[in-house]
Amino acid sequence: MTSAAITLNHVRKVYANGTTALKDFNLAVEAGQFVSIVGPSGCGKSTVLRLIAGLGQMNSGQIHWGKEQDSRKLAFVFQEASLMPWATVQENVRLPLKLAGLSTRAAAAAVAEAIALVDLQGFEQAYPRELSGGMKMRVSIARALITQPEILLMDEPFGALDEMTRSRLNSDLLDLWLQKRWTVVFVTHNIYEAVYLSNRVVVMAARPGRVVADLAIDSAYPRSESFRTEPLYNQYCRQISQALAGASQGEPL
Amino acid sequence: MKVATPRWLSPEILAPLGVGLLALSLWEIAVRVSGIPPYLLPGPILVLQTLVQEWGSLFPALLITLQITLVAFLAAIASGLLIAILFTQSKWIERSFFPYAVILQTTPIVAIAPLIIIWVRQIVPGDNSTFVSLVICAWIVAFFPILSNTTLGLNSADHNLVNLFQLYHASRWQALLYLRLPSAMPYFLGGLRISGGLALIGAVVAEFVAGTGGTRSGIAYQILISSFNLQIPRMFAALLMTTVLGVTIFAALTLLSDYLLRYWHESAVKQEN
Lengths: 253, 273
Known about the structure:
The complex is a heterodimer of chains A (about 250) and B (about 270).
Chain A lengths: L3 E11 L5 E11 L3 E5 L6 H9 L6 E6 L8 E4 L11 H11 L4 H14 L15 H13 L5 E5 L7 H18 L2 E6 L2 H7 L2 E6 L4 E7 L14 H17 L6
Parallel strand pairs in A: 3-7, 3-8, 5-6, 6-7
Antiparallel strand pairs in A: 1-2, 1-4, 8-9
Helix pairs in contact in A: 2-3, 2-4, 3-4, 6-7
Chain B lengths: L10 H24 L9 H10 L1 H35 L1 H16 L2 H15 L4 H27 L4 H9 L4 H39 L8 H10 L3 H29 L13
């Protein structure tokens, strides 16, 4: 475990209202790994992501970065696309570079490349309200990728999308990951999505937020759509589902 | 197949126009049939005739009022915007000063206008004195909607975007310029639409209180002396001009708002279903 990119040690987080979101939470993510965090709503999985990103303070514990990892090289994709409605696709994607002080001209090539990565050529001048939910999420991903991040934190990015769009974006995301090999921490409540995408799934339980299962998904990439019907895939899904059910036993729904 | 009708033939324009014409006709007929003297209630035709006859004395007065309104409105925009920005930079500033902005807003302008006129006369002598005090009165009335709307807008930026700016180490200035100000735009423009009309009302009310003539007297003074002299048709004509000016200001600001928000805000985007 020497190549861990991000290590969370004994992290405790209590909200202002007294709720313990995380209690003695430990997690080590290796460089280049695609880790999904699965759990019921309110189990603190989003909190983990936000703490890694440096949004919000923890009450105790530490977060370490690997030697070759740079905490500035991270990007975050939110649950909603969270685009600026007054700006075009191009301007939205350019935002991180603009905030870094790059001129429009200097950023142009990177913007074009990021838009091409998510297949949105031709929509550069469109405004967010003209786009479908899936396209908005692509813009959001392009905005995250434009800084050439090494670590990608994704907080239920496809949660609000329909099933067709979700599986399409799943396979597109995997294609990109195979090219770029970022370290990904992907939060979701969808077991099937987690198994399809990740090489490791961490299952969390609520009150207080803790890890109840940690599974390696041993299936080679690239994974085709047919992986979703293989017995191995189903077996992993069942295992995670059981871990979730076991953890939430006796809990009110 | 449905043929597109010209815009001016749409029911949105024809219906209120019809109601207006009907009401005016009834008014004219009622005045003629009942034989009410014009110094009690003039008919619309007489009002229009008076408007044309008195244009030479009324229009310059309207321009003076317009001038007061515009200067006060611009001052309200500048001060409202700046103070709103100041408020959002520090919760403490907002907490300490916002109640006083509310007090300024809720104090009846009619009551404090005489004070303002007296005070300003001590500082600014001569003919400009009235102009300055009228501008101050109109500004007090117009300032608050811009301040409160813009403050609300600046605080309404998408929470995720605020986090995103934080993540990319955006400076306070960048967050203001690229996130808070654009987010506040629809609210600010809403404030403008209210304040534009209020600036005119503030100017007219203050002119009534000031009640002074001279070379720079506005439309309210014309309304006032017309009523003193029982020139009721002239009073109606001046009133009509003031109302038309108010509607024009509102329409212009609505057009501006729709133009600035045309690409992205629900209020201005044309929906096709």
